[in-house]
């Protein structure tokens, strides 16, 4: 990792509460200056004052609603042009509950805008800035439902599968550029996202719910260990390696000039 004097600014989206606010606290503790992005300006201001006083770092707030393209473009421009930014934590996101057939599709579209479109634009801007400088890191917050889509809402699960795929592909594109990529894949984490989505997290077994501080600490430990994909609750990394290996074994047979004999 860089020394505190050279760590630069960490831009964190969805920073006013939950996972984003916890990343802000942990990164301030590590010596990063912060640029905090979220809709709730009052919460951002309160967090900025507290972290600046407690850790002696510079904290700037940038109120933005990333479901609005104009706000996304403003954050994107800052990411492209500010050479002091060295880390993007792409955390902003929402969830929804219920089946696709019964879904409010306007709500689903808003979720796709935030979880997919905004995340993609900001990742692209950071990739351009960081690769030109030969340094930096991009942390994209996904979810384990990308690996077990049957467990939750169809659209939410699909957005998180996108986050995983984007991160893996972008890591390949930036190989050798000095930019570190990480997809963080939490399970159920105790944050406000559940109440906002209409899901009663208290109905889940307590053994499934991780406290947000523990989740972020594990994610940052995975980042320090150069993991491309971090699943905070997974006991044995060999299980993920086996999953990746099984996928790779499909590779030679994914594209041929004839259909498989079993379809004839």
Automatic annotation (TrEMBL):
Single GO MF annotation: oxidoreductase activity
Keyword list, A-Z: Oxidoreductase
EC numbers on record: 1.-.-.-
InterPro entries with a match to the protein in the record: NAD(P)-bd_dom_sf, Sc_DH/Rdtase_CS, SDR_fam
The UniProt record lists the keyword rRNA processing: no
Annotated Pfam families: adh_short (PF00106)
Keyword Oxidoreductase part of the UniProt annotation: yes
PROSITE patterns: ADH_SHORT
Stored PANTHER family: ALCOHOL DEHYDROGENASE (PTHR42901:SF1)
Similarity comment: Belongs to the short-chain dehydrogenases/reductases (SDR) family.
Name by which UniProt lists this protein: SDR family NAD(P)-dependent oxidoreductase
Source organism of the structure: Ectopseudomonas khazarica
